[in-house]
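Re: the request from the purification team.
They wanted to know what the chain is likely to look like in 3D before they choose a buffer screen. I agreed to run a prediction and write the result into the notebook, where they can find it.
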Amino acid sequence: MATLAQVRKALAGTLGTISAADVKALSVFDRRPTQINTNVAVYLAEFSGLRETQDGGDLLTIPVVAVCGTVDNDAAWDMADRFVDGNLSIIDHIDANPSIGLGDVRATISGDWTEVAVTIGGIDLMCIQFTVTVRY
């Protein structure tokens, strides 16, 4: 059975394979960063868990936050569209990679997303938050 650390690392690694012609390397953090030096990134926020004993597994709920740019940058709105249903779609990427590289794990993502403003390192960022559920 995978550990919490392995699940977080595998999910971050899977999200790190998202790319587009104009985004060669997406910065992905397996936890909330204290500083961010890019306008386009993804991080895993604080998660919650449920110990399930009847089927012998655990269930994690992990908020995945896509940083689209600073709140005062109009281009951030276009980037948000790309993370939701464009060529950087986190929903499509998790749907296509449910094992996140671990054989005994199943990740699913709800189609719901929320626009959030987050401050990291004193910078106000416009973000889109998704919810990924991982059974392991």
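For the purification team: The chain has a mean pLDDT of 91.
Please add any questions underneath this entry.
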